[in-house]
Amino acid sequence: MPATSFHVMTKPIGPICNLDCSYCFYLEKEKLYPGTKHWAMQLDVLERSIVEYIASQPQPELHFAWQGGEPTLLGVEFFRTVVALQRKHAAGRSIHNALQTNATLLDDGWGEFLAAEKFLVGVSVDGPRELHDTYRVDKGGAPTFDKVMRGLRVLQRHGVPFNTLTVVNRSNAAHPAEVYRFLREEGSRFLQFIPVVERRASTAQANGLVLIQPDDNSEAVVTEWSVQPLQYGEFLVGVFEEWVVRDVGQVFVQQFDVALESWVGMPSSLCVFRETCGSALAMEHSGDVYSCDHYVYPEHRLGNVMQQSLEAMAASPQQQRFGNAKRDTLPRMCRSCEVRFACHGECPKHRFLTTPEGEPGLNYLCAGYKHFFNHIDPYMRLMAAELQAGRPPANVMRIARGEG
């Protein structure tokens, strides 16, 4: 029985992508593997990773997550091999797959495969054309919106379940209602809004990386595409105001769902809002395993799946220290905050500011989260009360519309 529950995000083609999104923090990870000519995960590494992950999970249903870079660059046949290996080693357990993609390479061959194998597909799209194309461009700097929409139509035509992942940046954050309405009208019923916050060092590190981790003391500035603190909170509030009057129970926004968990006293199902973290590992094409997708840096490498078990890496003292540091380094200001129960300092990646008292570890997005959580508090209290009374939380829409 595994000592700890964990999940692995597998990047079978590492950081390689057909797009060149301005804000992407992963493209430069190519520099961690100098001299690599063949980025596709080798068959022995793929099979070992599948065997290890199945062995590490005690539950009857297992969930694999495939991401990049752009995993569809590997072609359908690679994922046919994935499914065949999963079946070979499943030992009677049910296996589910999720694939995160920019959707630009999807065609009917992909659609048929994804539908037949019941993949859940996450599509990266940042809003309507003018907002999406601000930063999501190809290697030649050309816009990608039309290609993404063509890929989305493939999924819809073949009945492939999908959700959308929207990177909230300095451009689209100013248009919450427009972004939300667009996604809803395009058929998305499960939405994620991920804030982009990156710091650029004035000089590259020895390994060539320029976008640095929060505890790096190098001279650095927040990038021009990063969402601003209060701007992100106002974006979430703007989306919430659209959602709460008409879409509760019909459209599911990740941040709102996990907020409700906190208001009913449950631990968050999303790692960034848990008191501790460390249960979401990342695996590179080489089999290297890192503490987190946002901490693919040499000092956070846990090992390689060809030499160590996933279970041992997840339960290692190094990973336990990493996960507990989120709680243990929380500044005093945050410990006494009225919304700590819902936030817990959010992702450690963003905790590079100092408090007014000079204590390190304050989240860059603190002002935004305080604004958002305080704004939704009365609505969340109503929804929590409805749930506890055995009634649908969607009843909150009547209150939000002023209908009593």
Note down, in words, how this protein is organized.
This protein has helices at 43-56, 76-89, 108-116, 129-132, 145-158, 176-185, 229-243, 254-263, 310-314, 317-328, 332-335, 340-343, 366-388, 396-400, and strands at 7-10, 61-66, 94-101, 120-124, 162-168, 190-195, 199-201, 220-222, 252-253, 280-283, 288-290, 301-304, 353-354, 360-362. It is an alpha/beta fold and 404 residues long. The strands form 3 sheets. It has a 10-stranded mixed β-sheet with strand order 9-6-5-4-3-2-1-10-11-12. Strands 7-8 form a two-stranded antiparallel sheet. Strands 13-14 form a two-stranded antiparallel ribbon. Helix 1 packs across helix 2. It starts with 6 loop residues before the first strand and ends with a helix.
Oligomer category: single chain
* Sequence of strands across the biggest β-sheet: 9-6-5-4-3-2-1-10-11-12
- Cα(first) to Cα(last) distance is 51 Å
Q: Helicity range of the residues?
A: 25-40%
**What's the gyration radius in Å?**
21 Å
Strand content: 5-15%
User: What is the SS-derived class?
Assistant: alpha/beta
The coarse overall form would be globular
Major pleated sheet: 10 strands, mixed
Number of helical segments with 4 or more residues: 14
Model regions low in confidence, pLDDT < 50 over at least 5 residues:
none
Helix-strand topology string: EHEHEHEHHEHEEEHEHEEEHHHHEEHH
The total count of strands amounts to: 14
Average pLDDT across residues? 96
Q: Which characteristics define this entry?
A:
404 residues, 14 helices, 35% helix, two-stranded antiparallel ribbon, alpha/beta, 10-stranded mixed sheet
